[in-house]
What does this fold into?
Amino acid sequence: MTLRARINLIIASLMLVVVGTLTVVDLLGTRNAVREEISASHRIATQLVREVLEHYGQGNAGQLVQFLTRVGRVRSNDMTLYAADGQVLYRSPPSAYKQGRDAPGWYARLVIPDLQPVELPVFGGSLVIRSNASRAVLDGWDDMKAQMLGTLVLLLAVNLLVFAIVGRCLQPLSDVRAVLDRMGQGDYAVRLPRLPGAEAQSMGEAVNRLGAAIETNRAASLQAAQAEARLAAERGFVQELQSRIEAERRDLAASLHDEMGQSVTAVRTLAHTLVQRCGAAPGGDPAARRAGELLLRTTDGLYDAMHALIPRLRPPALDALGLSAAVADLVQGLRIQHPGIAFELNLPDAPDLALPEPLQIGAYRIVQEALTNVLRHAQATRVQVGLVRREHALHLQVDDDGVGMARPEPVAGRYGLYGMVERAQALGGALRLGRSRLGGLAVRARLPVDGWVMPTPVPPLA
It folds into this structure.
């Protein structure tokens, strides 16, 4: 049921209550009026008959009948004359007023007074006087019908007027509803015009603000979804790029070891042979010997540099033994190269068990870059490296006691930090920087392990 119909129903109900109250009041008034009229008429008629009987007391019943016939009907009273044997000698004629009509029985029972008939002895018989309020009751009924009909017509007219006024007053609500329906169908650009009335205007402004907010939020959500899609595509691109870079590094390391390594070994062998022959032959050429020794030292340096470069391109331990062994080998090499720094390695279990290759490579590169940053910038004397698998994720940590960072976050010019963050995100994980318990910088990374096919980002580290 609409609000308009409810308001009209309430008003109509209130008016019906008023009409019902007025009807009850009218009914009670009619009852009192009829009672007063009938009672007075009954008393007068009875007193009149008594006086007449005293006047005709020496006469006979025939004279009394002639008198009553001349008098006719006394208002609101029926008189019946009975002989001594019970024969009816006279009965009042019926009323000619509104003849043939009577009020409904239920109405008559409500308003007719309960008056006892009066019986007067006369000439051996009796004269019975009974009150008859049917005409007075019929008058009351006719008056009440006319009043009720007029009231109902007035009620109908007022209700129609109220219906029209309420409809006009509630028209702004219909406009608001229509706009909300259109918003529900996705048309968030629709707006309400200025509505009449302070309350309706406030409601219209609220609906317009709601539509503007929804439209703004929808646009922001769409932009966020597009940005998320672009970010996912970029992360996929970064993952693919890193995979190709690792593949190129692996191929390059293999080429250096297999092809260039053999060539350097051959040159080194020739240089060594040249030195031996120039030194063993009598009167050997000293210049040739010095050239051979220089070539031998150069090839030795080239050989050492090549073998130092190969692990950086692709750690052999990573392919042969896995992530834990590769990290341990990396830390051990740094201990040898930097004896003034205490490296502590924490590997409580075998976190690289059944890890996918891209995840192992990514984790190794993050640890490698973090240690490189420590050696370049931290001025640290103590470094802790941790690698543990828990809660369906691989957790990496690198702490140092160096100078730290004023703001532990990636900054312009520090591409290594950006690279670590991008690598972790490309693997579906997260990386954060913070203050280390040793006093320097703390690097924390969390990489998801379970269901690793094309990983989705995990929540940032707490």
In short: Strands lie at 77-82, 88-91, 118-122, 125-131, 342-346, 382-390, 393-400, 430-435, 441-448. The radius of gyration is 59 Å. The first strand starts at residue 77 and ends at 82. Residues 157 and 205 are 36 Å apart (CA to CA).
